[in-house]
Structure formats: structure tokens, C-alpha cells
Specification:
With about 290 residues, the protein is mostly helical. Helices cover about 70% and strands about 0% of the residues. Helix 5 packs across helix 7 (about 155-180), helix 5 (about 120-130) packs parallel to helix 11 (about 230-235) and helix 8 packs antiparallel against helix 9. InterPro entries: MetI-like, MetI-like_sf, UgpAE/MalFG_permease.
Length: about 290
């Protein structure tokens, strides 16, 4: 059978096709990142009329600032909680839908809908549900002896943003886990069933190990999501309060840079946040990927 190949003699064509994407990456990613690194070594007045080179002063002050260290710890708790909660629930929903035969499409559609909701809308939705005056959830919690008040209780506020952020990300995890479960060879499942393995044992001995590439991918995506994309949720629900109990690293960058007009410190925080995410990604690829079974 003859195969026809299309060849392009113009050597500039590949570069022309890549040019739009490279331009977007340069303008919206590389250039702002370079400007942030530059600003982190300078002290600039709020109106941008003068700048003074200060070296590593901003970085040194950040590691001496207890508020920044507290935000670092809160971000770690928030990231771990949201990642574990959203991935576990996404996997549970995917496993449940994968066992359905007739109504799988209906449940899939219903579970995907939250992903189409904007993060700020998700934050406002859960703010209304947990509102101490008109919310339904505080009413039911009070019936069992729990007095909910995220406006005064920092732990309640942290739980609120964790639930809102995890709810927003469950749909994304559900889609990938469901696709991974549907790609598991049915011959393996049937062979294990013939040997007498129950559904739970088949899931943990066959399906879950084969989902390790998907789990590894989603782990990286969820960590990056908690570090960057949860800013609208925090801003819409708690605004970093009460008493900075929900001020994560990305929200502190906004508070110090946009609200406080401390451009140098805010730039240093954004650079450190980028380095933290890069370090976590490197550690995941360097050590966690070893246990992934492709």
C-alpha cells in the first residue's frame, strides 16, 4: 500500500506556526516574570516615580516576617487539604459512575457542571451556604451543637475555603479518573472476578495501580491549582480573614502589592511562590514518579 507524504520546502514555516504561541508566552508569561524578578531587587515608591536597588533586602525581610511565615504554613495546610479532599472525592465519584450502565451519562454531566462555574462564583456560593445569618449549613450545624462563625473563628474560615476550593476542583479530577477507569482492560477485571475477587479488592489491586499515571498527573495539577487559582475563592469568601487566618501566599501577594502598594515585597513574594511551585514539581518528578506504573 502506497503512502503519500506531504512535504513543505519552506524552512520558515515551522517558525511561523510557532510564532503566535511564542509571542503569547513571551508577552504574558516570560516578560511579567522577568519584571517581577527585577522589581524584587528594587524599592519603588507607590507612584512609580523613583526606584532604588536594594538587593536581597526584600527576601531577607520576608523570612524575618512572622506574618509571611504564618502564610507559608497556612498555604501548606490549605494545599494538602484541598488536594487530598478533591482527589479522593473525584476518585470515589469516578469509581461509582464507572459501575453504572444506564445512567452514567446523566451523573457524569451533573458532576462536570461545577467545573464550569467561575472560581469567584464558587466562593460566593459557599459563602451564602455558610452565612451565619441566612445560610442553611450553620442552621443545621447548630442543631448538632456546632456554632459556626467563619467571620470570627479562623479554623471555621479555613474549613470554608478548603471546602469551596475542593468542590470547584472535584469535577476536573472526576473526569480524568473516570477516563482512566474506563481504559482499564476489562479482561483483567473479569479474570479477577472469576478468581473470586470482590469489587473492592479488584479496585485496589487492579484499577488503582493502573491509575497511577493519572493520579500523578492530577497531583501536580492540583498542587498548582491550590497555589495560584484559588485566589478568587479566598477573596470572595473570607478576604484573607479573620485576622489573616486564611491569607495564603498568593493572597498575600495581592494584599501587599495591590492594597498595600509595597511593590518590591510583593514581587519578592511572587518570585518565592514561583520557586516553591517549581521545587515541588521537581520533587514530584524526581521522587514520586518512580512509583508510577506506566
Amino acid at each position: 500500500m502506497d503512502t503519500k507524504r506531504t512535504t513543505f520546502n519552506n524552512r520558515l514555516l515551522p517558525y511561523m506556526l510557532l510564532a503566535p504561541q511564542l509571542a503569547i508566552t513571551l508577552v504574558f508569561f516570560i516578560w511579567p516574570a522577568a519584571q517581577a524578578v527585577k522589581s524584587s531587587f528594587e524599592r519603588e515608591d507607590p507612584f512609580g516615580f523613583s526606584t532604588v536597588f536594594v538587593g536581597l533586602t526584600h527576601y531577607r525581610r520576608l523570612f524575618e516576617d512572622p506574618n509571611y511565615l504564618d502564610a507559608l504554613w497556612r498555604t501548606a495546610v490549605f494545599a494538602v487539604s484541598v488536594t487530598i479532599l478533591s482527589m479522593m472525592l473525584g476518585l470515589a465519584f469516578a469509581a461509582a459512575v464507572n459501575r453504572l450502565t444506564r445512567s452514567a451519562r446523566i451523573y457524569t454531566t451533573l458532576l462536570v457542571w461545577p467545573y464550569a462555574v467561575a472560581p469567584v462564583v464558587a466562593g460566593v456560593l459557599w459563602w451564602f451556604l455558610f452565612n451565619t445569618s441566612t445560610g442553611l449549613l450553620p442552621f443545621f450545624l447548630e442543631r448538632i451543637g456546632i456554632r459556626w462563625d467563619h467571620d470570627l473563628n479562623g479554623t471555621h474560615a479555613m474549613i470554608l475555603i478548603i471546602i469551596a476550593a475542593a468542590w470547584k476542583q472535584i469535577s476536573y479530577n472526576f473526569l480524568f479518573f473516570l477516563a482512566g477507569l474506563q481504559s482499564v482492560p476489562q479482561s483483567l477485571i473479569e479474570a479477577a472476578a472469576i478468581d473470586g475477587s470482590g469489587p473492592v479488592r479488584r479496585f485496589f489491586t487492579i484499577s488503582l495501580p493502573l491509575l497511577s499515571p493519572t493520579t500523578f498527573f492530577l497531583f501536580i495539577i492540583n498542587v498548582n491549582y491550590t497555589m495560584f487559582d484559588t485566589f478568587p475563592i479566598v477573596d470572595a469568601t473570607t478576604g484573607g480573614g479573620p485576622a489573616q487566618a486564611t491569607t495564603t501566599l498568593v493572597y498575600k501577594v495581592y494584599q501587599d502589592g495591590y492594597v498595600g502598594l509595597n511593590i518590591g515585597s510583593s514581587s519578592a513574594q511572587s518570585v518565592l511562590l514561583m520557586l516553591i511551585v517549581m521545587l515541588l514539581t521537581f520533587v514530584q518528578f524526581r521522587f514520586v514518579e518512580r512509583r508510577v506504573q506506566y
